[in-house]
Design brief:
IS66_C, 3 domains, Transposase_IS66_central, mainly alpha
Length: 124
């Protein structure tokens, strides 16, 4: 194998694994936004995995898909330092108040600001 290591050893398997994924491994050097592991995603999913038995009662496939959509919104809010309950309440109110479709991008968690914060910022 490589450097006199037995091809069936654990070290050889680890070296082969790294070599097969060399392009992905070296992307970390080129792009400092990338994480070396997926711990952030795993921590985000932990609360869902812990209560997996509860999700058996989603009622239907559509119910499960809706729950997944809500969890996606909540986790996206958390990643963008937005309080999920305030965000969802505000967005629902804006949509119910005939928010123009051409401005939906302003409602995304990474663009959203609380109405009172926005008003204060505009007043200054």
């Amino acid at each position: 194998m490589r450097c006199g290591v037995s091809p069936k050893s654990e070290v050889a398997k680890a070296i082969a694994y790294g070599c097969k994924r060399w392009t992905a491994l070296t992307r970390l050097v080129d792009d400092d936004r990338l994480e070396i592991d997926n711990n952030i995603a795993e921590r985000a999913m932990r609360s869902i995995a812990v209560g997996w038995k509860n999700w058996l009662f989603a009622g239907s496939k559509a119910g499960g898909e809706r729950a997944a959509a809500i969890y996606t919104v909540v986790e996206t809010c958390k990643l963008n330092s937005v309080e999920p309950q305030a965000y969802i309440a505000d967005v629902i109110a804006k949509i119910a108040g005939n928010w123009p479709a051409s401005h939906w991008d302003e409602l995304m968690p990474w663009n959203w600001h609380r109405a009172d914060e926005q008003t204060i910022a505009e007043a200054e």
